[in-house]
Amino acid sequence: MSVEVKEFAKAADLLAEATGEKEVTIQTLKKKIKIKKVTVGELADIMKVAKDNELEQYIWLVYKGLTEPKLKPDEVRKLNHKVLLEIALEIQKFSELDKDSIDKLANLLKTKS
Known about the structure:
- The chain is of the alpha+beta class.
- It has a single domain (21-109), classed as 2-Layer Sandwich (rbstp2171), CATH 3.30.2220.
- The protein contains six helices and three strands.
- The protein has helices at residues 11-15, 40-50, 54-65, 73-76, 81-94, 99-109; strands at residues 21-26, 31-36, 66-68.
- A three-stranded antiparallel sheet has the order 1-2-3.
- A hairpin with a 4-residue loop joins strand 1 (21-26) and strand 2 (31-36).
- The protein is globular.
């Protein structure tokens, strides 16, 4: 599959925010929330703060990706663990950070020898 390239990208094209918000239903609560895609910069911030602590990564991912209701980090820490994980996984999927999305991207980027 070849892609026809028409012009060079501009800096604004590359630096554009990750777009999109999405309403999702949290099955644990049977309530809707609104999430957004996290950017590479936000992901880098999360990794800097959370290091190798997976629970901290989820907390900061929810803090960055949950837009409605907007919660502060200390409020995210008070969430029920099932709710926290469910929201974090929805944000990962929507931001294409889940394993399936990463595997698809890796397959797409493979070149034939």
